[in-house]
Amino acid sequence: MKKKLNIIVVGLGYVGMSNAIILSQHNSVKAVDIDKTRISLLKDSKSPIEDKLISNYLLNKKLDIEAILLDKIDYGIADFVIIATPTNYDEKTNSFDTTSVEMLIKQVLINNNRATIIIKSTVPVGFTEKVRSKYGSDNIIFSPEFLREGNALYDNLYPSRIVIGDKTPKAKEFAKLLEKGAIKKNVKTFFMTSSEAEASKLFANTYLAMRVSYFNELDSYALSHNLNTRRIIDSIGCDPRIGNDYNNPSFGYGGYCLPKDSKQLLANYKDVPQKIIEAIVNANTVRKDFIAEQVTKLNPDTVGMYRLVMKSGSDNIRESSMQGIIKRIQSKGIKVIIYEPYISGKQFINSKLINNLNKFISSSDIILTNRWHKDLEGFEHKVFTRDLYEKD
User: Fold this and answer.
1) Is the pTM of this model over 0.90?
2) What is the distance between the alpha carbons of residues 389 and 144, in angstroms, rounded to a whole number?
3) Assuming Cys at both sites, which of 20, 186, 295, 374 could form a disulfide with 9, CB separation 3.0 to 4.6 Å?
4) Residue 389 belongs to a domain
5) How far apart are CA 269 and CA 279, in angstroms?
């Protein structure tokens, strides 16, 4: 029997958890995070994030996985260290904040210079080349993820492709680990330079943001001219070159990845002529302005925001378009209340949190929801949504 590899995964969000699960099927995985609650949940075989398949695997599959706090991990044991920490976009520097990624790279190299470091965090184009040079190591590889929140493990078990920003034997070995953990066979795997891999991630997400923005602007036009949005979308979607994916109008693209990745790509265009990338970033602001204006025209005293999460089956409210709309509605002097079970406390963004659904509904003149939910059945007369297909 081939000896198991020792793999450390740092950062237990969607990317880190899904990688930890698929790799722990055939290897020994240490799942690491700074959050004590996440570590405690994982030790009890409970998923620290909202993903039904991850929960199922933790309960029912034979996995070699151990949850460890960041300050307790020994990097000396590792063959591979996967970094999956957040890289939030910093508006002041016009770039991702890669502080946590660099800190971990430095710690790993100090304790184990033979380990191969795999960066799964999204980074600017050119970042991996820079840190390789800075720390004098060729054992740093960028490998992007293409996952949906709430379906992260599924998208790792049935990957659309595997992208590895390196062509060395270690890069090929890591690709084999991902292929072995997947259920889908004959997955397309691309080996390229680190900068090409970084660009492939940013361009993929920015294209998705563009598509979301296109159908949102189609919807804005239809609403402004009293046209039926769905009939128009159904018609143009019949063209196989256009298709029916990512065509459901929303309050704007959100979640964690699309807003920050499109901004980072725009920043990477600093010395390159462009118009489309900038328009994609600006289109999201325009859409939220438009939605807020439509709601304001209805003259409500109290607007209820039903859920801040962007997608069904997700617990992520980061960069949610709903938050931007809350601020715009508040600026008009309209009271806003929020129903969001994932947030504790009494207030969020200067708005009252109401965790009783019936009280929330009865207290709202209008209820905004980015995606329709059966919770709102019977109160359709109060609901404002642009969800035409009841899908993400």
Assistant:
1) yes
2) 30
3) 20
4) no
5) 13
pLDDT in tens, 129-159: 999 999 999 999 999 999 988 899 999 999 9
The band of 316, judged by pLDDT with boundaries at 50, 70 and 90, is low
Question: Do 174 and 276 fall within a single domain?
Answer: no
Whether 172 and 212 map to the same domain: the answer is: no
Residue 392 lies in a domain: no
Q: Cα 87 to chain center, whole Å? A: 11
Number of domains in the chain: 2
Give the model's pLDDT for residue 237: 97
**Which residues touch 133 (CB under 8 Å, ≥6 apart)?**
none
Question: 39 is written with which tokens?
Answer: 């570590």
Q: Is residue 391 part of a domain?
A: no
Q: What is the CA radius of gyration of the chain?
A: 22
- Residues serving a catalytic function are 257
61 assigned to some structural domain: yes
Spatial CA neighbour of 230 closest among 241, 218, 242:
218
Tell me the C-alpha to C-alpha distance, in Å, between residue 311 and each of 148, 249, 351, 371.
9, 13, 22, 7
**275: its two tokens:** 């118009």
Buried/exposed code over 24-38 (b: 16+ C-beta within 10 A; e: otherwise): bbbbbbbbbbeeeeb
Residues 333 and 213 in one domain: yes
Collapsed DSSP state (helix, strand, coil) of residue 285: helix
As a whole number of angstroms, the distance between CA 137 and CA 116 comes to: 10
In 138-183 the beta strands, taken as DSSP E runs, fall at 140-142, 162-164
Residue at 94: amino acid letter: N
Q: What is the CATH number of the domain that holds 50?
A: 3.40.50.720
Q: Do 261 and 354 lie in a common domain?
A: yes
Distance CA 166, CA 197 (A): 9
- Whether residues 272 and 165 share a domain: the answer is no
Segment 38-52 mean pLDDT: 95
50 CA to centre of own chain: 12
Tokens of 368: 């905004």
Question: Is the pLDDT assigned to residue 312 strictly greater than 90?
Answer: no
State the CB neighbour count (10 A cutoff) for residue 331.
Answer: 10
Do 235 and 138 lie in one domain? The reply is no
User: Could you tell me the residue range of the domain that residue 367 belongs to?
Assistant: 201-384
Residue 117 and residue 160 in one domain: yes
Which 3 state secondary structure label does DSSP give 66?
strand
